[in-house]
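User: Can you predict the 3D structure of UDP-N-acetylglucosamine 1-carboxyvinyltransferase? Sequence below.
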Amino acid sequence: MMQYVIKGGNPLVGDVVIGGAKNAALGILAAAIMSDEDVIIENLPDVRDINVLLEAVEGIGAKVFHMDAHTVRINGSSINTIRVNDDFIKRIRASYYLLGALLGKYKRAEVSLPGGCNIGSRPIDQHLKGFRGLGARAEVDHGMVVADAAHLSGGHIYLDVVSVGATINIMLAAALAEGNTILENAAKEPHIVDVANMLNSMGANIKGAGTDIIRIKGVPKLHGTTYSIIPDQIEAGTFMFAAAVTKGDVTVKNVIPKHLEAISAKLIEMGCEISEFDDAVRVVCKSRLKYTHVKTLPYPGFPTDMQPQISVALSLAEGTSMVTESIFENRFKYVDELARMGANIKVESNVAVINGVDCLSGADVSAPDLRAGAALVLAGLAAEGHTVVDETKYILRGYERFDEKLRSLGALIEQAEDDKDVARLKLEAV
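Assistant: Sure. Here are the predicted structure tokens for UDP-N-acetylglucosamine 1-carboxyvinyltransferase:
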């Protein structure tokens, strides 16, 4: 079992380059199979979730050619099945994007129920509602989501709750439906805009992405394209908080600062200095962090995927902070692990009350999910002594070369394969 061995106490200093947005890439990969021509995707993050989805795309017959570590060419003309039933695909939530893509292109799709991190229920009822609004039959049958239609026709769809996944899935299917679709109460996240831009570059007609009303005029077919994915706001935010918790000075490069405004605003409230450039953000922390209150909300609010990272920072801040999680109900599972490091956090329902402590102490902890795993690494970087984070497989789902990038900033972090390796690295004062 791969583990991270961390010796805390080093301020992080330097520049770090952010990769492509995982959450955008997953939707864009699904869109790529909707054309029978070559689609080239650039700035693709080399992380496990992406590689699993590429395996699934190959599994249904599409041709996938890795041009380099971050560029892939996909051709969907050779797809020979609309059934995606694979053990790998059950592990990632984005499997359901293949529903919208296959339904739009072939008017039928069968995909395993999605998996991913266990951070709370991820109902697909809004996805099914959207497909039905386009004239399809959509239901769950023996662990598979099945959708089919004689033909898809545009409709007026109102989402009961804001859902990133449903918004992307409906856009995918509606892009090749007959007539006009109006999608109201749509999600507004940057990766929604990126998927819409990708589809438009393939010949789709989508307007309003990034607002709560998206208008889609169906087209007969999609053509090939070359498209570069936007930078990952969550990877960027994670490194911004890494600078904050270690009292460092880090310039986060290859970002879109506007996508990071909610994160930057909280860091400023907590006493950090933030400098914005055209495609970079610099975070400087010179003194102890201050308390603040935060509530996760759909974009442009504070992202739920950054909640564990800010909670780690607030556990070291002066005063009492409150963190309210309004998106996923199980997102505080890391709190017990953080308590092992000396954090003082009490959780009731969806609210964490955090009393800041002077310092954290190294401990053996386990990553319960992707973002919480990254947050525990940040805690280890700020703690006194050694921290060992296991279950790093979760972290590898969404962060490319995480330990390598941290080392480039001065972090003392290494990968260990077993307990003997951990002991050796501790002796070597990693």
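The chain has two domains: 3-17+231-428, 22-215. The CA atoms of residues 367 and 373 lie 4 Å apart.
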